[in-house]
Structure prediction request, 98 residues.
Amino acid sequence: MGRMHSQGKGISGSALPFRRKPPKWTTITPAAVVELIIKLAKKGLTPSQIGVVLRDQHAIPQVRFLTGKKILRILKKNGAAPEIPEDLYNLIKKAVSV
Prediction:
C-alpha cells in the first residue's frame, strides 16, 4: 500500500523491542510509576496522554515493561479509569463537532 504524503511503498515502521524487561537506565520504581499515573489521571489526562507524558518528560519508555500492567488496567484497579473508552469518546467528540 502506498504512502499518502511520500513516494515510498515500504512497510517499515516503529516496533516494540523484543525484550520485555525495563531498560537498565530507568531508575524509577514501579510503585512510583503507578503513583505518577494516578496523579496524571486526576489532572484529567487520558491514558494515551499519560503515556506520552511519561515517555517525553519522565523517560519511561513502556509502562507495561516496568510495572507489568498497562496504563488503563492500573487506572481501573485504582478507580481512576474514564467512564467511556477513549476511542469512543474521541469518535463522539468528532461527531459533535461536525
